[in-house]
Automatic annotation (TrEMBL):
InterPro entries: MFS, MFS_dom, MFS_trans_sf, OPA_Antiporter
Location relative to the cell: Cell membrane
Organism: Eubacterium maltosivorans
Protein topology in the membrane: Multi-pass membrane protein
Name assigned to this protein: MFS transporter
Species classification: Bacteria, Bacillati, Bacillota, Clostridia, Eubacteriales
């Protein structure tokens, strides 16, 4: 923990920034809360909805990169206030049932103001709230808090939407409600978030120097081999768990025959309630484990086993539903801690903003193409499409394991070299 901040204040900031980070994603991702209802309300095909997701991901891809510059140059308060203000306006626009072309623009703007002005700033701010030994707990707690909000909001929105017999009115109401909440959190950003991040205060007090230029940070970051190795590792992790996050809900509807309402309820518990458990357990266990990276490897092995078991058990609905509720425990465990390995991979604190932007640019790029690919698979043949989605999870989990081991071994070699240097210095003295 930073020495200039009380534990109570730090905990409050972790709570606030986590809730804000979750809330701002609900509108653009509401299509996965209520997949079938959203498709019906906007009269979209699976492919069109997939295209909206891919457009969102493509814009976000470049926005993460830009966000690295923003995170190093502007205060968290300014970035969050701007993000929530603009996203409130976009929510109100989306609630008016605009044309498909307008939806493309709305999703593009959501992507920019979620990813350029919010995400890298969130990562940098959160990392600065604790020391290296606390990183997994910080990120895990943050993910758990986001899960609490996601689950509570999802169940609340589900309770709201079922009050309306007309699907369009129900979906419109929940989007407007979220737009109003965005305005509230824009005000809360101004009131409670500090102008300067804890990490920047700490660096300023320790060094008493101007921080390096953005360009120098960029060059220093791209020269680090760890930046690129970590990017591929996180890319593979993201490919793995987003397949489950996005499609397990509609899998239970289309393959297992569960009603859309029950599927939405299970999906909310699966995607947010289980996230709470996975976040808290993942953060604590990862920090206590011999290595955070090896802990993630074990979780990836669990994902592989359950991803294979899900389609094989589709003939036994109860068993398949049970597996579909356990699988998120593993992939959300990964999601809750995989950004905590920045320090393990050798990324300096001073480069966190820039590194998180570059890494996110690569790691989260599946958003630009994954939903379009999978939407086309499902439109052609739902059964084969879902089998291919689970196969996708397995393949990328294996890739993630390989790169996790590479990062782990490089870290051990780096630590050994440091010990040797210190030993030589001691011998000289």
């Amino acid at each position: 923990m930073t020495t200039s901040m009380s534990k109570g204040k730090r905990n409050f900031l972790v709570f606030l920034i986590s809730i804000m980070c979750q809330l701002i994603y609900i509108v653009p991702y509401i299509r996965f809360y209520f997949y079938d209802q959203y498709v019906a309300a906007y009269e979209l095909t699976n492919l069109q909805l997939g295209n909206l997701g891919s457009i969102y991901g493509l814009v976000a891809l470049f926005s993460y990169f830009i966000g690295g510059f923003f995170a190093d140059r502007f205060s968290i308060r300014s970035l969050m206030t701007l993000s929530f203000t603009v996203c409130a306006g976009l929510a109100f626009w989306e609630a008016m049932y605009p044309s498909y072309t307008s939806l493309i623009l709305i999703y593009s703007l959501f992507a920019f103001f979620n990813s350029a002005t919010m995400w890298p700033a969130y990562i940098k701010f959160l990392r600065g709230l604790g020391n290296d030994d606390e990183q997994s707990r910080l990120y895990g707690t943050s993910e758990a808090l986001r899960g609490v909000l996601g689950c509570g909001a999802g169940l609340g929105l589900l309770a709201l939407v079922v009050q309306f017999t007309e699907i369009k009115v129900g979906v419109q109401t929940i989007i407007i409600t979220l737009g109003v909440s965005y305005i509230v959190f824009a005000v809360l950003s101004l009131i409670f978030l500090p102008k300067t991040s804890p990490a920047e205060k700490k660096n300023a007090s320790e060094k008493g120097k101007d921080k390096p230029s953005t360009w120098k940070n960029f060059i220093a970051t791209i020269r680090l081999p760890e930046t690129w190795i970590l990017s591929i590792f996180m890319f593979a992790c993201y490919c793995t768990f987003m397949a489950g996050v996005n499609y397990l809900g509609t899998y239970t509807t289309q393959i297992l025959g569960i009603s859309a309402e029950i599927s939405s309820g299970l999906g909310i518990v699966r995607n947010y309630g289980i996230l709470v458990i996975a976040g808290l357990l993942g953060g604590v266990l990862a920090d206590k484990a011999k290595s955070r990276l090896l802990f993630i490897v074990y979780l990836l092995i669990g994902v592989i086993i359950l991803a294979v078991a899900t389609p094989l058990s589709s003939g036994m609905v109860t068993l398949c539903l049970l597996i579909s509720m356990v699988l998120p425990l593993f992939y959300y465990g990964i999601k809750s801690v995989y950004f905590s390995v920045l320090g393990d991979a050798g990324i300096p604190m001073a480069l966190t903003g820039m590194a998180s932007g570059i890494i996110s640019f690569i790691a989260l790029s599946p958003d630009a193409f994954m939903t379009t690919i999978m939407g086309s698979w499902l439109d052609k043949d739902p059964v084969m499409g879902f089998n291919m989605i689970f196969g996708w999870m397995v393949i990328w989990a294996i890739v993630a394991i390989v790169f996790a081991i590479i990062i782990y071994k490089r870290g051990k070699n780096r630590a050994l070299k440091s010990e040797n240097v210190l030993q030589k210095q001691g011998d000289i003295l």
